[in-house]
From TrEMBL:
Taxonomic classification: Bacteria, Pseudomonadati, Pseudomonadota, Alphaproteobacteria, Hyphomicrobiales
Keywords (A to Z) from UniProt: Plasmid
Coiled-coil ranges per UniProt: none
SMART domains named in the record: Lactamase_B (SM00849)
Name this protein carries in UniProt: MBL fold metallo-hydrolase
InterPro entries listed in its UniProt record: Metallo-B-lactamas, NDM-1-like, RibonucZ/Hydroxyglut_hydro
Naturally occurring in which organism (per UniProt): Mesorhizobium ciceri
Cross-referenced Gene3D superfamilies: Ribonuclease Z/Hydroxyacylglutathione hydrolase-like (3.60.15.10)
Domain named Metallo-beta-lactamase: residues: 36-248
Amino acid sequence: MTVQIRLSEIDHARREDHGDGAWSIAPDLGYLRLAIVNVVFFGAPRSGDRNWVLIDTGLPTSRSSILAVAEKRFGTNARPAAVILTHGHFDHVGTVLDLANRWEVPVFAHRLEWPYLDGTESYPPPDPWVGGGLMALLSPLFPRGPIDLGNRLELLPADGSVPGMPGWQWLHTPGHAPGHISLWREEDRSLIVGDAFITTGQESVYEVAVQDLEMHGPPRYFTPDWDAAERSVKRLAALNPQMVITGHGAAAAGVGMRKALDSLAERFTVFAVPPKSKFVREPATAANS
C-alpha cells in the first residue's frame, strides 16, 4: 500500500493560461504536462531565439507538443540557449537528441548521468514489486537506455550556475538517479526538482491520470538508492521553497506545500520507501541488479 501525504491546504501554484499550451506560474517560468511527465520552459514569453531554456524533454512522443509550445511561447523558429536534463530516465529524455540536433543546442547534465547519455551504460532494471499499482508492475517494459547524445552533451558548470538561466543554481540531488539534479532560484524561492520528489502517485495508472495533489517521494520502481534519496529530500526541504515544479504532478506552492515537504523529509521511510523494495538495503547498480 502506498502511503501519501494529503493535506487539504496544499495549494496548486497559481497558474495562468496564455494560450501557448503551457501553464505559466511565473513571468519567466511555465510547464507542460505530456502524458505522464512534465517539461519546464524558462524564459520570458516572446523573448526570441536563444533566450530561453528547456528543462527535460518528455517522452519519445512529445516532440510535436514541445515544438508547438516553444513557437507560440517564444516566437517562430525561436531556439533555446540550452537544454538542461534533471536526469536521464526515458520519460525525461525521450526527444532530447532529436530536439538538440534540430535546434543545434547543447544538452547539459551532471557527470554521474553521462554513462546513460553517452551510450555507455543502461540504468539498473526497475523493481515492479514496490506496490502502488499498474505503473509499477509495467515498469520492466520501460526503456532503460542508454542513449548517445554525442557532441551535444556537455557538463554542467562546476560553479553551480545553470547555462541560460541567470539567478539559478543546480543542486546535486541523487537517489532516484546517480546524477539527478534540481534547480533553485533564491530570489523567489522557486524549485524545479525533477523526480527528487513528486506531487502525484506515479505507481498507479489512476493517480497518474487524475493527478490529485499529494506529496510523494521519487517514483518507487525507478529509485535505486533510498538513502541518497532521503538526503536529497531533506536538503530540498531545508531550502524552504515557496513554489515547486516536479517531474510528475502539478506545481505546488505555499504554506501547505512546505508543511507536506517537511513531513516527507521528517518521515521519509514511512511515506516514501517501499517496504519490500529489493534496493532498500543496497543501492542498485548495473552490476548488482
